[in-house]
Each structure stands twice: as C-alpha cells, then as structure tokens.
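Q: My collaborator sent me two sequences in one message, no labels, and asked for predicted structures for both. Can we handle them in order? The first one she listed is below.
A: Yes, handling them in the order given. First sequence, followed by its structure tokens:
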Amino acid sequence: MRTVVKYGGSSVATIEKIQAIADYIVKLKKKYDEIIIVASAMGKTTDSLIKMANEITVNPNQRELDSLLSIGEQQTVTLLSMAINSKGEKAISLTGYQAEIKTKGVHTKSKIESIGKEKIENYLKDGYIVIITGFQGINKNGNITTLGRGGSDTSAVALAVTFDCECRIYTDVDGIYNVDPRIYPKAKLLNTISYEEMMEMSNLGAGVMETRAVELGKKFGIPIFVGKTLSETGGTYITDREKSLEEKLVTGISIKKDILITTILNIPYSSEKIAELFTVIDDYGLNINMINQNILKDNMVEISFNSQASEKYILEQVVNKIKELSKDVSIKYRDGLGMISVVGIGIINNSGIAGRFFSALSRNGINFYQVTTSEISISCSVDKDLIEKAVVAVAEEFCL
C-alpha cells in the first residue's frame, strides 16, 4: 500500500517538530509499504527569504527569487531525511529537480507539467521513504521554478496522481472549518466537503488548501484528507459531491483581508483591446477576480478588478505594460478593502441566499461594493476594518 503525506511549514517549524514527525513516519512505515513525503519550508522561512530579497530591491528578478525561495524546502527535506535515517529507516531527500518535477509558466507562479516516475519508483522499491521538496520544480530552460503560495499542496496531490494513491495533507489545524474559528468561535469542523466547494473556498481566500491542488484531486479522483499533524482524530475528507452526506444552503465562508481594486479608464471599446488587456494580466500571472466592465456614452470602457495587495509588485508590472500598449489609459486604485464570500452547493437551487447575505451585511451597517457570483458562491468587497464583523453577521444569518 502506498501514500503521499504532506507537511506544512508550521508542522516542520523546529528541529523538535521534525524529530516528532520522523517518529510518526517510522510507525507509519509498518502500515504503508511505500511512503512519499512532501515538505514545506520550516515555519516562516519563505517570508524571511522574501524579506531579504526586498531589502536588496523592491522589484527582485523573478528567476533569482525562485532560486532563493527554493532553499527553504531543501533545508526541510534534508533534515527530515537525516532524522528518519537516524531512527533506523531508509530515507532519501530529493529536490524538485532531482525528482524530475517539470514545470511551465512564469517564475514564482509556475505550473506542474509532468513528474518523472522511474527514479522515485526505484527508490520506493528499494525500501526508501522518499522525501521531496514541495513548491518547486524545473522548467525547460533548466531554471528552478516555484509554484506560488500553497504550492506544496499542489506538489503533493500531483505526486499522488502520478503514483495513483491517496494524499494526506497535515497542518496545524484540525481540518477544514466552515468559518475561520479565529474570527467566529462557534465555527464547525467539516467531516467532508466536496471538491467543488473546497476549490471555491480556496480560490476566495480559505488558506487551508491550495485551489490547484483540489482541482487536480477532482480531475483524477484522488482522495484528499486534511488533518492536524500527529493527531489521530478529526480531519476532513475532500470528496466527490455525491459522497457528501449533507447538503447545506451555505457550506462555509471565505475571506480575503487585504485587496486592491484597480480601475483602468479610457479604453476604446473593442473586443481586441479588452482581450489584449487581459492577455497582459495572464502573461504576468496576476490573480484577479470581481471583474466589472462599464461601457460609457463616448464608446469608451472602464474595467475594474480586484487583486491581493500582497501582489502589488506584479500589478505594477501589469499596469506599466498596459500603459506601453495604450498611451491614453489612466489607472486609479482603491485600497483598504477586504472580500467576504459565502460558498455552498445549495446556492444552485436557492435564489434567496443572495438577499439574506446582503441583508445581513446591511443590518449590521456594513457597506458593500463590488459584487460577483458563481454557481456556488456569492462575494462582495467591504471595508477592510469591517471584515470580521461581516463574517460574524453572515455566519449567524446562515446558522454556521
């Protein structure tokens, strides 16, 4: 029997925690014949590396940034391999390059294209526990690449797809809650959640899983378990919709605490111009949502979208490129905003949910701005300092 096990940064933050995980893996080897481990960088290592880069320059070269950020995971897997070896089991650490994780796309936000199977398979057959760096790979030019925030989840699920087995994601929380318990103490732990709902919650701000990882799980039918490191209880299974035992009107709430609304003005109305604008956004890997288009009387267009404030350095590159392509455009920003979303399969067949959502905000004196919907979610931007109040109001409205 085979499994892929992934440990997040908080789970491997200290040598003591790495030693405890090594003890656990030695015991787990009695249950599983073959174990692949994916590990993140220790604690806040990635943040520290980014801070150092920003002390050199506010706009670091993205290739060099990838090379720098890959150090964190390499440190973790090497230490974990040493710990397991010292306890009598055979283990070997592999970087993304050594594991033949091939990627495509832009630096700092690459996507996995393929994973070489033979080398890892041979190590497993020889009785090794294989420990692989999450979050990174190598592109066609031989450059180290990283997959973006949460990329270790994607690495783990991609490996589970490659080796056709379950994927167990371990972190510092008990599983997936319907609301962030740090904001809403009455939040409930979900036993199961559908792939669709988890993808939507992740995309809209829930940080416990990375969207692409869940998407891979759904596409290839990979069972994903999310639980607390070293715990024998709790946890949440991400599963097919039909296997979910209960369908609520609203499954959960997601938030983003710090977003920017960018409005691009003076765009001539034509499909070619608008397509060109979004091609630039895509080329730079900027994640956006809540897109609004207003066609004005003079046949000009205003386009607004929101993005994470933490990605402002990418946004600035996008804006500079747009200005190069069209000299007459002007840009304005609005910051100090957050985003709140309700997610649930039940939204499909219940038209009254939007009214209840916005009424809950209004009753509590919370203004809302941009609004967007999907088949299973409703989102709006609100003032950043009111985001937690909004969560409580909406959670109480839907009895979460």
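Q: And the one she listed second?
A: Here it is, processed independently of the first:
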Amino acid sequence: MNYYLIAGEPSGDLHGANLIEGLKKSDPEARFRFWGGDKMAAAGGAENLVKHYRETSFFGIVEVLKNFRTIRRQMEECRRDVAAFAPDVLILIDYPGFNMKMARWAKEQGIRVFYYIAPKVWAWREWRVKSIRRYVDELFIIFPFERDYFPRHGIRPIFEGNPLVDAIEARRASLPSPEEFRRIHSLDERPIVALLAGSRKGEIRANLPLMADLARKFPDRQFVVTGVGWLDRSLYEEQIGDSGIRYVCDRTYETLAAAEAAVVTSGTATLETALLGVPEVVVYRTLWFQVKLQPYVLKVPYVSLVNLNLGRESVAEIIQSDRDTSRAERELRAILPGGEKRGRMLRDFAELRAVIGGPGASDRFARRMVELLRGSRSETEPR
C-alpha cells in the first residue's frame, strides 16, 4: 500500500521514522512519500522526502503571520504532491496548524485520514475536536489520559502505548557514561545540569537567557545546553553570553544520561527527561498577557506531560514573562542530589514509566494501521 506521512517538527520526524519501520514490518510492499526530516529519510528513503521540517516549522503567532504566504504556498505544494502520489492513507503526525487543514482537504478528496499523535486539544483550541470528528477516520493517541478525554467528545481513539519509549530504549544501551560524555565534549569534572531550551528559534530566544541567569547561580555545576543541528550555533551563543553554559549539538539523550538534573522547556522533552530518570524543573517564558490568560485559556491543570499523565504535580512548572530566577533556583536545588524533592520525583518517574507502557508501541500502532486499511479494502472489493 501507499503511505503519505506529514511531520513538521523534530519530534514528529522521530516518531514518523519509527512508524515507517513498523509499517515496513507489517506491510513489506509498503511505498512511502513524506514531509519530515533526516530520521524519516533514513527509514523511508531519502528520495521520498519531499520537504524537510527546517522549511516548515514556524513557532508562535508572529512567525506564522510573517510567513503566511510561505505557509500557504507549502500547503498548495503538499496538496498537489499528495494527489499525485494517490496514497491509500494520509498519516498526519502532530503539527496541527498545518495537518488539520490537510485532513479537511484529504477528506474532501476521498483520501483516508489517520491522525497519529493527536493534537493537544485538551490543552487549548478545543474547538479542533469537532474537526477531528469530521475529517479524521482514525485517531491514534500516545498519552494514557487521552483515553478518557476523547470518548467524552464522541471520538473512539486507539492507544498502543507511547513511541517515545521505543526511541529511548533503542538508544539507552549505547549512551555514554558521564565520564565518557565529559571526555568526548571536553567538559570539566563538575556535575552536569542539562538545559533543554526548545527546538525553535522563538523558544530558544525566550528561554535560554533565563536559563543563563540561572546557571550563574550554580558555579559548582556545569550547565550544558542541547542544541539542534538545524539551527545555527550562533543563535545559542547570543543567548548564553558570559554565563559559562556549554553547547552540545544533537546529543539530547547523551546529555541527559550524563546529567544529575535538567531544566526543560515545556513539551515532549519533559516526558523524555522523565523516562530517562533525570529529575527536572519545567521553565517556560512567554509574553506577559499569555501568562495572565493561562488560567482562562488552558483547558488542563498542567503544562508538562509528566504531570498530565500522573494526574498530579510531580515536576515544578514555572511559567513567567520576566527573567526572575528565584523560584527556578529553589526548585532546582530541591532536585539536586541531597535535595528534599529528588527522591520523591524519582519514585514518580518509576510510576510514570509503568503508566506509559513498555516498548514496541511504534510496531503496534503500525500493525493496527495496516489491519484497518486492509479491512477497509476488503469491504470495498467485489466478493
């Protein structure tokens, strides 16, 4: 069968690559075409990569408005390419601003639509639930708490675990020891605190200066920011200044494995950090009016995936518009070795791993997709 996948961010590229590997196991004759990144290209063939997420990832309303013409042009380009490929299914991976529009178009064209990694409608923009009901044939969810949320809105989702577990387990055995990591990256002997400042320019400009201020409060620690290769190193260096933060590129899991704690921007990274067993503080800087509006706009009590899946506050969530580091400093000290919150947080992370489920989710999702597609095919074939 023919599969067209669309991912617009690094995390989507990772999950898309693992899904492609699973689809190849369940459907050896599978043919692919996709928007994504290097990982999907490695899994599905570089010749089948139409557009890299470097060209399609825009963060925040300002960037979207500035690049409106580009986004519209990309949408038309994508539609033409999907139509030419004539897939058996269009698989949309997160990236809702773009993918929900593609879902509507595909449904109107009679193309079957699978949405893999549901839009976070439980957090904001809940009106998208109606569009999911109307334009998505099958919704595949990766968070346990979503199993209760979507049925309340008339959608029966499919849950097979979380593919992040696969990504982490695939890498765990090859991760260097803290000593090896220091040697490889010419770091000194001080304990490491990992900084995950986001994967978009806007996120890094907002969060890394606060993290730099925080690093200055801990001269006995070595702060290491995990950069992404598709953004220029100078972007990080501008925000780091004289804080002493070290820069490591495309080595997020390695940095976390070597760290005794982490400061993380809200998003998938909060869950990755927890699944690797690294105590963390969530820090997110945004505009002042968005901080004020958060209690009225946000539909869930937490922003981190750790707290949402546990159903309680395990990791501290610090959402602010200024660069005051007082609370972040207190919370970070509390999770360092000897801190009063460290032991409890590590126990919470062990519980989280049990809630999320074991490895093999990518293959299980792929198998369900193939079964559904073959079932729908047989129903339409003449008997």
